[in-house]
Specification:
Layout (H helix, E strand, L loop, with lengths): L11 H4 L20 E5 L6 E4 L7 E5 L4 E4 L1 E5 L2 E7 L2 E4 L3 E2 L31 E4 L5 E4 L5 H29 L18 H13 L7 H5 L3 E3 L9 E4 L7 E7 L2 E4 L8 E4 L8 E4 L2
Antiparallel strand pairs: 1-4, 1-8, 2-3, 5-6, 6-7, 9-10, 11-16, 12-13, 12-16, 13-14, 14-15
Helix pairs in contact: 2-3
Protein name: C40 family peptidase
Pfam families: NLPC_P60
InterPro entries: NLP_P60_dom, Papain-like_cys_pep_sf, Peptidase_C40
Length: 282
């Protein structure tokens, strides 16, 4: 993965954060007079205000339909950013102006499929030999060590099933490669980061993990990134305030829907964009 930190540090989870302090007004000594106002158009949570126009410095948050003053704008990487305070920026996709229709993402719920039934494994009987009082060999066909054998078989089945489930989720995720990032997109034609995770688990396994990053944090057991296995979720940001999520593929690679202007892709974990923790769902 190249040093593309600026393009990889925000996704759907940011707009889903709740309970965060809102913008505290503007420092008029450092910015020019406001030229117009805009309305925050993201309805499914709060929207991040960035300390720079490059998705790298989360600064504060604004809520749906909150009005913000506009002090200027600039183009960065094909995205128009609006200055809403001293070193405070919001991308245009999350703002509506008086002459625009609000651009609220449509929440398309993925169709859930029932998980495939597992084929039971037949009990394995163990025959044992013994001698009677006359020294004759007697064959005992009872299920000696049956409990131990069944427990071992059950544990093997669980492991194999988990591997098969992970493979199914990964395979479906790879089928989405090249589909565009759209904020709030939950498929099948476009995705944001958490929408992609929701889609693949729901449609591959019939498993509901939540629609954005914070609920997805609780979809399984938290582990360190170094313990991640194929099929685990990996998160960026502190627990309860994560801003990006991806599906771990193994070999230091993951698949995700990164940022506006990009598509679902496979990337490598890098020290320049290091996940914070992982969650084992399966």
């Amino acid at each position: 993965m190249t040093h593309n930190k600026t393009l990889m540090t925000v996704s759907a989870g940011i707009a889903g954060l709740a309970g965060i302090a809102l913008v505290n007004g503007h420092d008029n000594s450092k910015v020019q007079a406001a030229t117009q106002t805009a309305t925050v158009n993201y309805s499914q949570g709060t929207t991040t205000v960035w300390g720079s126009a490059d998705f790298t410095q989360p600064k504060s948050y604004v809520s749906y339909q909150q009005t913000v003053d506009i002090y200027g704008s600039k183009q960065v990487g094909g995205t128009t950013w609006y200055l809403v305070g001293d070193n405070s920026w919001i991308p245009e996709i999350y703002l509506s102006f008086d002459n625009q229709t609000q651009n609220t993402p449509t929440d398309t719920t993925a169709v859930e499929q029932a998980p495939a039934e597992e084929t039971p494994v037949a009990d394995q009987n163990t025959a044992t030999d013994a001698t009677d009082n006359g020294g004759n060999v007697v064959t005992d066909t009872t299920n000696v060590s049956d409990t131990t054998t069944n427990e071992t078989t059950e544990n093997t089945n669980v492991t194999n099933t988990d591997l098969n489930k992970a493979a199914a989720v990964i395979a479906l995720a790879k089928e989405q490669l090249g589909k565009p990032y759209v904020w709030g997109g939950k498929g099948p034609s476009s995705f944001d980061c958490s929408g992609l995770m929701h889609y693949v688990f729901a449609n591959a396994l019939g498993l509901e993990i939540g629609g954005w990053t914070v609920p997805q944090e609780s979809a399984g057991t938290q582990i360190s990134v170094s313990q991640a296995q194929p099929g685990d979720l990996i998160f960026w940001g502190s627990r309860g305030a994560t801003y990006h999520v991806a599906l771990y593929l193994g070999n230091n690679q993951y698949i995700d829907a990164p940022v506006p202007g990009r598509s679902v892709e496979i990337a490598s974990i890098s020290q320049y964009f290091m996940p914070s923790f992982a969650v084992r769902v399966l």
